[in-house]
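Side project, low priority. Logging it here so it doesn't get lost.
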Amino acid sequence: MYKATKKKRGEIHRIQIAEGVEKNGKRTRLIGAHYFSSTESAADAWTLVQNYLFLHYDLSNTVVISNSDGGSGYEFSQFNEIVTGCLCHEHVRDAYHVNQKIKQRLNFVPELQAELKKAIRHHDWSEIELVLTTAESTILIDEEEVETHQKEQIRLLKGYLNRNWDYLMPLYKRGLGENLRGIGTCESNHRPYSYRVKGHG
């Protein structure tokens, strides 16, 4: 989001594509990265990406891995539509946003947050339920308002994980190679945009 006028806010709709990642010392670098943005609508940004893919790739021989937070305009269906006819399409929920959700919902039991992340990496629903049940057992039942709020946080988190379960499976468990890890690079590349709209050059 950015301040467009005194009464309105604008939004930069961003999509990026790359052909993979490579090691650059301790850091990683995107291979063949291209960035697309629009201040008009997400649909405009998607049109730019779709045209670029059509002109530069034969998707019938391409495995596509997509990644998003699942927000409006960035659902699995949107990605799937622009890569129709690809060899294989795997969609992943962005780890940054999943971790933020865990931190927000389980802020009253920070010691269980790492356990829940581990259960997600194992992609084991029984482990998820065990952690959430443990979290529920720590709720103070002598404070009704706190109890209600914390139970609601657990319910919301469980619903979120359940809705996104297919997209939470790690890439290495999808038969795409043991060394394949996440592609959560979009958040880290917000900086040039945020600096620009904040007047830093």
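Brief comment: Strands lie at 2-3, 9-10, 13-17, 20-24, 27-31, 34-38, 63-68, 88-93.
Revisit when time allows.
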